Amino acid sequence: MSYVLSLLIFLPLAASPAIYLITRANKRWGIYASLALGTVVFLISAYVAGKVYASPPQGGQYLFQERYSWINFNFLGLDYLVGVDGLSSPLILLSALLTVLVVYGSRKLIDHHEPAYYALIFLFEGSIMGVFTSLNLIMFYIFWEVVLIPMFFFIGIWGGPRRKYAALKFIIFTYSGSTIMLLGFLYVYLGMTNAGMAVSFDIPSLAGKIPMGLQYLPLLASFIGFAVKLPLVPFHTWLPDAHVEAPAPISVLLAGVLLKMGGYGFLRISLGLFPNASAQFGWVFLALGLFSMFYGALAAILQKDLKKMIAFTSINHMGFVLFGAYATIVSGSLLGVQGAIFMMFVHGLAVGCLFMLSGYIHHQAGTRDIPALKGLGTTMPRTATVLVLASVAAMGLPPFASFLAEFMVIAAGISAYAILAVSVLVPIITAGYFLWMIKRTVLSAPEGSPVHDMEWSDVAAFSVYLIPLVILIVASYFILTPALPVATFLRGLA
Amino acid sequence: MIDFVSVAILLLSANSLLLPLLQIPKQRNPRLPGYVLAGVLAAVVVLIGLSTEYPGTIAWFGTLLSEDILGAVFAMVTVGITLAVTVASFDWQKGPNAPVYYSLLSFTALGMLLLSYSSDLLMLFVSWELMSLPTYVLAGFDKKLRSNEAAVKYAVIGAMSSAIILYAISLAYGLTGSTQISAVVQGFYQLLATQSSSSVLASLAILLFIAGFGFKMSIVPFHMWIPDAYEGAPTTVSALLAAATKKAGFVAAIRVVLAITTVYVLTKSPLFTTADVLAALALLTMTVGNISALTQKSMTRLLAYSSIAQAGYILIGFVAYANSPGSTAATIGMTGAVLHVINHAILTGVAFLAAALVLMQLRRADLGAYNGLGRRMPITALTLSIALLALAGVPPLSGFWSKLLLFLSVANGPFLWLAVAGILNSALSLGYYGWVVKRMYFDDPESPEKVPEPFWFVLVFAVMVGLIIGIGLFPQQAINFASGAVPNIAG
After folding, report:
1. Is residue A240 domain-shared with residue A213, that is, in the same domain?
2. How confident is the prediction for chain B on average, in pLDDT?
3. Do A190 and B413 touch (CB under 8 A)?
4. Which of A239, A317, B192, B425 keeps 20 to 30 A from B322, CA to CA?
């Protein structure tokens, strides 16, 4: 039996206290140790992703599967069950990569309570790995909730002026959503028990087995849980607050990793376990996704705070994920699910880069206000270049892979209902407000005192976000090939 | 075979009677009575543990007590909490009255021990009183106005609930001619079978039992005395009231009300069943407890309302059982209820003890005292945070598993609405639990200096936190212990 995934989950969790102690003794060594640990976890996740690419598991099958008996009664059985497929492996890779970049980016931006900060980063990483690899609904829920705790402290301790409000709002919103999701799982379990069916909480053995009558309420319940996380308009109001108050590196984790939990949940659970009900109400989800895309894009235009603008871009992009996922169910076009998985990966990098950059600009220029930032092209040429490139990536223009992801999702949407061609407008609006932002910040005349530009080492760190996006437009098969059996499987269930 | 439980009972009785004698000699060590009691209670816990490994019968007590896992669970929990309270009292209760204080604790523990195993209504009532009377004195032990007011209020309400229980017992005896619980259950079954007209009286008896026990269990609308009593009493005593004596109310309700529910429906052509009554009470208790807790300014009152809300969750398991005894849902529900009793005892106990330490060191109980506690009293703050998050049901802590089982037991079927209400309440409760955590870690303290944390408190905290996380990560043993109690309900 393989133990790679357990290592991926429990290595960061177990090492987190050690990171605390090392950082307490010596900050510099603490950051080195965190970087080393992050890199090790990244290498393991790269190995996992490589294996999944080399031999993609069939639909409904999982690689690196591990199963141990955990709780065993005649009325309740829970196994520790983990595994990966083409849906989870890109997300694991993304989380591990972003964790390393976040640790690197935090060294200048975080200046108090460092021991707890770096320890919590790995608590977060371990539990997020748990979310993406758990194949048991209760385990999934446990990791899902554990993720909240470090995030609550990240926002509350290292956040901006309204950090306490944002932290409480964040945890109450997401906790409420996820408890309702849990109730949906329990409803299925007890319903199947009462009907005398063989039942467990294992996702592989539940897929395709849940009777139609038991799908509607859980679909609604899990929808609430995932919609809060994704976030889908109108469940999104915690997100701008959390992003504005969170320190920049944490915004990277929030947008790059935490939001993916919602998209992952829609694909793995809403489509994977409740496919018939999903298909029946597919048009509702498509409409909600479309609305979220437009709302996020339009609201972003109005934002003066650079970070808030990026936060609304996240809402816009995550709408694509939901849209793509349900487009496959409605139309049968495999591009939808593939595009959604691809979108999650590229969004994590592009928007992660932008968030980190916003923190950097705030740190150097003292403000994130778009009207107040003037002439970055002259005063901070290197920063401005990265900002332009990252914006292009977020707009979805070639040569960045975001283009491909948006294209696939929109194509699938059109094959579901021709009227959904209006979704083409979303990337146009996105390009519009990004270009306007660049015009105001980069291309305007400089004002005030000159500021320090970024060092070349930082430029290198930022290019780690962007280079994979360029590579992936050519090597898109790295993600799309393993995603194909997942898409086929999900389509086949409905 | 040695009769472990009887030995435990005798040991505890002798200890209760002899402890005050320590007041007579000029004392060398003012902590001696505390040490004696802690030793005895630890021995009792071990004896109860042994009795579950080597079950016998409590031969010395005839049919008054029945040795079963249900009794062992509750005896272990209540005596264990008394032990924790005793250890935590070492540092503040060492004056000339200490022997009396510890003797009263000992009597309470004895009452709870007997109550846990009671299989006869009269025995149950006598142990109920044995448990309650010392706590009236303990609640007023501080000789302050608030403390005395709390004691009087508690005593009056307590006497009323005892009277209600006694009336219910007399009704049951009149209807069935026996005080033996199993015989009473049989008698009620006969009443039902013969369509006797006295079934109205039987239903009245059940409702009176629910009300009488409800005062101790802190079920809304019998909860009014709780916040005042918990706030006024010395906080370590509040820990005992909330974590231990309250649980005794639950074991009594399980042994009497749920046992009767197994065979008896409340009305002949049921307008409403016992399950409906319990479900309404559960909903009220959860909601009133949580909403009131949201607005509290004092930590002890907040914990008091939280403890009321937690009683509502436990009732969910009762509902699942009363709805269809014998079904899988009933097993899940009662396992969850018993497990939540165990968890809640630990969690509320440790939370009250943490509040007691803060009160002792800072002389303040308002929530403002908790600002920045993470820097001033790091161990206490961490302990309290873990306990509060576990009370909210955040995984992977112990409270999660019992809530999972409780909500699972009604997650499908006629009481789905109760599960929805419970889940929403659970999310709501994070509003005030999280608020306290926020104060401890995000807000700045009023004065920055560190506050000493005495050894005995830290020891209790460490053991309790170990249990919270241990049960959270590896719940198999705890669930197994709790589920062992379920078959004992029907008697």
Report:
1. yes
2. 89
3. yes
4. B425
- Nearest-by-CA chain B residue for A78: B476
Yes or no, beta carbons of A175 and B329 under 8 Å apart:
no
Given a cut of 70, is residue A411 above it in pLDDT? yes
Residues A471 and A332 in one domain: yes
- Return the structure tokens found at B245: 């004596």
Say how far apart CA A26 and CA A115 lie, in whole Å.
9
8 Å CB contact of A75 and B441: no
Question: Average of pLDDT values for B103-122?
Answer: 93
Residue B28: band (very low, low, confident or very high) from pLDDT cuts 50, 70, 90: low
Per-residue pLDDT band for A309 (boundaries 50, 70, 90) equals very high
What residue numbers bound the domain in which A185 lies? 1-280
Q: For residues A117, A347, A129 and A463, what is the CA-based torsion angle, rounded to 10 degrees? A: -60
- Do both A257 and A293 map to the same domain? no
Asked if A376 and A335 sit in the same domain, the reply is yes
Q: Which of B473, B341, B477, B334 is nearest to B398 (CA)?
A: B473
What pLDDT is attached to residue B422?
94
Structurally, chain A folds into a number of domains equal to 2
| Higher pLDDT, residue A129 or A207 | A129
**Chain B residue at shortest CA distance from A184:** B411
Nearest CA in chain B to A77: B476
How many CB atoms are closer than 10 A to CB B133?
A: 18
Nearest to B441 among A75, A145, A153 (CB): A153
Does residue A453 carry a pLDDT above 90? no
Whole-number Å distance between alpha carbons of B133 and B113: 15
Residue B320 tokens read as 């699942």
> Chain A residues with CB inside 8 Å of B335's CB?
75
- The verdict on A249 and A302 lying in the same domain is no
Give yes or no: residues A305 and A262 share one domain: no
| Domain boundary assignment for chain B | 273-491
Q: Do A182 and B404 touch (CB under 8 A)?
A: yes
Question: From its phi and psi, is residue A263 left (phi > 0), alpha (psi between -120 and 50) or beta?
Answer: alpha
Say what angle helices A381-395 and A425-441 make with each other, to 10 degrees.
Answer: 170
pLDDT digits (tens, 9 = 90+) for A96-116: 999 999 999 898 888 888 899
The answer to whether residues B327 and B344 touch, using CB atoms and an 8 Å cutoff, is no
Sorting pLDDT into bands at 50, 70 and 90, what band is B193?
A: confident
Q: Do residue A320 and residue A257 come from a single domain?
A: no
C-beta of residue A378 within 8 angstroms of C-beta of residue A491: no
* Contacts with A73 from chain B: Cβ below 8 Å: 479-480, 483
Per CB-CB distance under 8 Å, the chain B contacts of A182 are: 404, 407, 423
CB contact (8 A) between residue B424 and residue A176? yes
Quote the DSSP letter at residue A84. Answer: E
- Using CB atoms, pick whichever of B427, B438, B479 lies closest to residue A71: B479
Domain boundary among A280, A311, A332: A280
